[in-house]
Amino acid sequence: MADGNRSEKPSARKLLKTREDGNYVVSKEFTAAIQFTAFFILLIQFGDRL
């Protein structure tokens, strides 16, 4: 049962409890995009000082 294939979606209560516990589903691509954007902004702001 630990293979990740679920036949039913999680209940609203279970989703709410997960959010309250601070567990969020975030893709690795989204995290990488945010990091790249932050780096790019910092490079533009402080690039002339390098």
Low-confidence stretches: none
Number of strands: 0
Secondary-structure content class: mainly alpha
Q: How many distinct folded domains?
A: 1
β-strand percent reads under 5%
Given the structure, what is the number of helices?
2
Helical content stands at 55-70%
**Tertiary shape:** elongated
The radius of gyration is 19 Å
Mean pLDDT across all amino acids: 84
Distance between the termini: 53 Å
Q: How would you spell out the order of helices and strands?
A: HH
Describe this structure in words.
The protein is elongated, with a radius of gyration of 19 Å. It is mostly helical. The chain is built from two helices and no strands. The longest helix is centred in the last third of the chain and has 19 residues, at 28-46. It has helices spanning 12-20, 28-46. The chain has one domain.
Structure summarized in a few sentences:
This protein has 50 residues and is mainly alpha-helical. It has 2 helices and no strands.
Fold blueprint:
Elements: H1 12-20, H2 28-46
Keywords summarizing the entry:
about 55% helix, about 50 residues, single chain
